[in-house]
């Protein structure tokens, strides 16, 4: 179950890739795929309201059609736990959303995304260069003691015009602002969770459809080909 364009070494597709994160059920996974998602995020972080266990993840993955990327999200988890989950769940890509080093991220032999939480004064370009093996860098909002799922945007003006790795944009995205985000930053991909939910961990099908339609409309306005 892999969309080669989402985890390839060079992101060269002419449309913005879409990852819907925080999937907690097979029904939500299928709905996201049917709406047009390129990738689904499974959160293996117990404090999160979107956190899931191994059997739950296996049930979700079994329902996902081919050519949709399965991304496993971890936050400063131990290597032993990550290895155990990778042995039991068919994962295409790992997303590291904590303070993991490049050496830590690369030991699992899987394509990976590295999340960076954006705040004023941070040298994002330098931080990005510390992860040369990452398939992409995901920029997310920063809040103390909350590694992700903040539901808030960050100042997109803080993102450098050029980064060493492809950019996936996250942080408070929804169908009302994702078009502006794409026009501002032209990211390789966008990542949404709370912006397509009716409650934490419960996806809303109309919201997912509107979000994906907004992304495709922005692509067309920029001359991208679906």
UniProtKB/TrEMBL annotation:
The keyword DNA damage does not apply. It is an enzyme of class 5 (isomerase). Gene3D superfamilies: Aldolase class I. GO terms for biological process: L-tryptophan biosynthetic process. GO terms for molecular function: phosphoribosylanthranilate isomerase activity. Its EC number is 5.3.1.24. CDD domains: PRAI. Pathway: Amino-acid biosynthesis; L-tryptophan biosynthesis; L-tryptophan from chorismate: step 3/5. It catalyses: N-(5-phospho-beta-D-ribosyl)anthranilate = 1-(2-carboxyphenylamino)-1-deoxy-D-ribulose 5-phosphate. The keyword Isomerase applies. Keywords: Amino-acid biosynthesis, Aromatic amino acid biosynthesis, Isomerase, Tryptophan biosynthesis. Residues 18-213 form the N-(5'phosphoribosyl) anthranilate isomerase (PRAI) domain. PANTHER family: N-(5'-PHOSPHORIBOSYL)ANTHRANILATE ISOMERASE. Belongs to the TrpF family. This is N-(5'-phosphoribosyl)anthranilate isomerase. The lineage of its organism: Bacteria, Pseudomonadati, Pseudomonadota, Gammaproteobacteria, Cellvibrionales. The gene is trpF.
């Amino acid at each position: 179950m892999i969309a080669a364009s989402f985890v390839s070494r060079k992101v060269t597709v002419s449309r913005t890739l879409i990852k819907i994160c925080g999937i907690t059920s097979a029904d939500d996974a299928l709905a996201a795929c049917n709406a047009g998602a390129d990738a689904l995020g499974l959160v293996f972080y117990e404090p999160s309201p979107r956190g899931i266990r191994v059997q739950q993840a296996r049930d979700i993955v079994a329902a996902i059609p081919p050519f949709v990327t399965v991304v496993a999200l971890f936050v400063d988890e131990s290597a032993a736990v990550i290895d155990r989950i990778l042995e039991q769940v068919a994962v295409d890509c790992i997303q590291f959303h904590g303070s993991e080093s490049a050496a830590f991220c690369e030991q699992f032999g899987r394509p990976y995304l590295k999340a960076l939480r954006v705040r004023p004064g941070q040298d994002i370009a330098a931080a990005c260069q510390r992860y040369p093996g990452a398939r992409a860098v995901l920029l997310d909002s920063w809040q103390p003691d909350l590694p992700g799922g903040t539901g808030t945007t960050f100042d997109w003006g803080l993102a450098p015009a050029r980064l060493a790795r492809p950019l996936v944009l996250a942080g408070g995205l929804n169908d009302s602002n994702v078009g502006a985000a794409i026009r501002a930053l032209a990211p390789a991909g966008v990542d949404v969770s709370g912006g397509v939910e009716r409650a934490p961990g419960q996806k809303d099908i109309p919201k997912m459809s509107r979000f994906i339609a907004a992304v495709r409309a922005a692509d067309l306005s920029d001359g991208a080909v679906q």
